[in-house]
């Protein structure tokens, strides 16, 4: 079974600065997807960014980018120019392409605080 | 286009009571999921339905039953609620096309359930 680990329960960053959230995963599969979801106080789960394992290029979405290290099974999220609205719980998630149902396995989450 | 909707948003039950959480999606997705979110544990899969007419157990199915009523609706039933089932419950859906799952899952707003 796959596991996802987020070793930072809490992180903080000053507004306009850069922060990196860590995620590691364990799998024996070669084909999979990785995701970062954001959960603000409203509880809504919002997709931030996704990475296909077969792609070597790191995904980027505006101020959000990832550092995907397949051999190390590491998938960190970098938030540049942090904004107050970035404050939320962030979840790393793994999705297998080799099992039915497209199930997601989530990490424990990292609570991000943005200080003005 | 409402996406994924869940009812109710909040519910308080006494131990031993039963209830059904409702979920509906209007995106014509084939696959639907039920997760629970507990503090410090991320989201864990309870049950999922890869397509209409099929359901499968996830990571934590004990104490729950599901029904895929039609392509739009996927309900979660607690037959005899226990305090350990106090949690936030999320429904999600995703698309599958020609055997390939398309990217992300879309989540509903969640149901906060308290069992006393």
Overall description:
Chain A has strands spanning 3-5, 10-14, 19-21, 24-26, 32-39, 46-52, 60-61, 64-69, 74-79, 88-96, 104-106, 110-115. Chain A is an all-beta fold. In chain A, the strands form three sheets. In chain A, strands 2, 5, 6, 10, 11 and 12 form a six-stranded mixed sheet that branches. A four-stranded antiparallel sheet of chain A has the order 3-9-8-7, with no helix packed on it. The model of chain A has no long low-confidence stretch (mean pLDDT 93). With 116 residues, chain B is mainly β. Chain B contains no helices and eleven strands. Chain B has strands at residues 4-7, 10-13, 19-25, 31-37, 43-49, 56-57, 64-68, 74-78, 87-97, 100-107, 111-115. In chain B, strand 9 and strand 10 (100-107) form a beta hairpin. The radius of gyration of chain B is 14 Å and the shape is globular. Chain A binds chain B through residues 4, 6, 9, 33, 35, 42-45, 47, 50, 91, 95, 97, 100-109, and chain B through 31, 33, 35, 40-45, 48, 50, 56, 58, 88, 90, 92, 94, 96, 101, 103-105, 107, 109-110, 112.
Give keywords:
heterodimer, A: 116 residues, mainly beta, 6-stranded mixed beta sheet, 4-stranded antiparallel beta sheet, B: mainly beta, 7-stranded mixed beta sheet, 0% helix
Q: Which percent range fits the helix content of chain B?
A: under 10%
Intertermini distance of chain A: 41 Å
Mean of pLDDT of chain A: 93
Describe the sheet with the most strands of chain A: 6 strands, mixed
- Looking at how many chains there are and whether they match, the oligomeric state comes to heterodimer
| Rg value of chain A | 14 Å
Alpha-carbon Rg of chain B, integer:
14 Å
Give a brief rundown of this model.
The complex is a heterodimer of chains A (116) and B (116). Chain A is 0% helix and 53% strand. Chain A has no helices and 12 strands.
């Amino acid at each position: 079974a796959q596991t996802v680990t987020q070793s930072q329960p809490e992180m903080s960053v000053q507004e306009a600065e850069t922060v990196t959230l860590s995620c590691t995963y364990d799998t024996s599969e070669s084909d999979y997807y990785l995701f970062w979801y954001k959960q603000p106080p409203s509880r809504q789960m919002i997709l931030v960014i996704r990475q296909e394992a077969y792609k070597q290029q790191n995904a980027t979405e505006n101020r959000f980018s990832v550092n995907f290290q397949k051999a190390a099974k590491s998938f960190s999220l970098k938030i540049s120019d942090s904004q107050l609205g970035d404050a939320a719980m962030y979840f790393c998630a793994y999705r297998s392409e080799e099992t039915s149902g497209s199930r997601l396995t989530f990490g424990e989450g990292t609570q991000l605080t943005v200080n003005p | 286009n409402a996406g994924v909707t869940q009812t109710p948003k909040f519910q308080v039950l006494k131990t031993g009571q039963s209830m059904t959480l409702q979920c509906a999606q209007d995106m014509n997705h084939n696959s639907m999921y039920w997760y629970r979110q507990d503090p410090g544990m991320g989201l864990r899969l309870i049950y999922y339905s890869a397509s209409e007419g099929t359901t499968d157990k996830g990571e934590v199915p004990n104490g729950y039953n599901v029904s895929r009523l039609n392509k739009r609706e996927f309900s979660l039933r607690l037959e005899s609620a226990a305090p350990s089932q106090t949690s936030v419950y999320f429904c999600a859906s995703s698309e599958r096309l020609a055997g390939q799952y398309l990217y992300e899952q879309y989540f509903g707003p969640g149901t906060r359930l308290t069992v006393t």
